[in-house]
Amino acid sequence: MHVLSVRWAQCLLGGALLLAMPTARAACERSYRIPMWNLGYASFLEADGSPRGFIGDLYSELARRSGCVLQFEAIPMARINAMVQTHQIAFRGPAGVVRPEEDPQTVFIPMMRDCIELLVRKSLPARFSLDEPPPAAMVFGRLNGAGYGKWVERYLEQLPKPQVQLVNTVDSLYRMLEAGRIHATFANAYVYRWQLKHLQLEDSFDVLPVPHAGYTAIGIKIDPKAMTAADFSLLARQLEAIRDDGSFARMIARHLGEAQAAEYTAHQAGLPRQTGR
């Protein structure tokens, strides 16, 4: 059995980093590009390019178990969506289920579930309810390229355009919240808890449930067209094994505690892969 020894090295892809087992020959036929973006406790890149968060831990373990070379890059969500169209991205996550506009051969491996919530500034002059039209001056922030689930996306689409501000990065969105340029945003707990803590804004926002949205499946999307068939089979199996043997729940617990990990991973073991077909 190989002893884990993660090797980091600068590569030629504009600051991308490689993660691999120290084997003479990687188990995969090719190396694979993985975009990372700042999603709080889920994923972010350190200053040296190291992937962190429970999704970063997941990819590190995937590289360790498979022996494959994974290339990590900080890429904005909007650019990722464009790169997906030309099959430049093999893995994406955390991500939701395959959407109608995506390649129907895209494979989604469910890893966890979550309930989206709504952050609302406490400084709003009136109390706010999702069952009523929002005040005309209330502006919602929406992350460009992110999926929010069917109910939330329908809600945002029904608002007048001036009430929805499209923002390209998570950091920019929360700076706009801090400055009062936007007043609310739909978000996952693993994102907003990290952002509010680091901006020292935990007492400035109310967190409202979004009961109409229900649970959302969150996992890893794989593009079989960006991989060899053998590599796809190997890496998909390894991702499912990391979920089913409890390793992924332990990764979440390290960042968010055991109670949150148990909520996120309940009823997830053994779930089948999904495609857009």
Structural write-up:
The chain has 277 residues and is of the alpha+beta class. It has 2 domains: 17-112 and 218-275, Periplasmic binding protein-like II (D-Maltodextrin-Binding Protein, domain 2); 117-209, 3-Layer(aba) Sandwich (D-Maltodextrin-Binding Protein, domain 2). It contains 8 helices and 14 strands. The protein is globular and about 60 Å long. Residues 1-17 and 19-25 have low confidence and may be disordered.
Approximate helicity band? 25-40%
* The top level CATH class name of the largest domain: Alpha Beta
Order of helices and strands: EEEEHEHEEEEHEHEHEEHHHE
Instruction: Specify the CATH homologous superfamily of the largest domain.
Output: Periplasmic binding protein-like II
Sheet-strand content, in percent, reads 15-25%
Give the termini distance in whole angstroms. 39 Å
How many strands, which pairing sense, and closed or not: the largest β-sheet?
A: 5 strands, mixed
Catalogue the unreliable spans.
1-17, 19-25
Q: Please tell me what the overall shape is.
A: globular
Number of strands: 14
- Radius of gyration from the CA trace? 19 Å
Instruction: Fill in the CATH topology of the largest domain.
Output: D-Maltodextrin-Binding Protein, domain 2
- What count of helical segments does DSSP give? 8
Secondary-structure arrangement, i.e. CATH architecture of the largest domain: 3-Layer(aba) Sandwich
Mean pLDDT: 86
Estimated structural class: alpha+beta
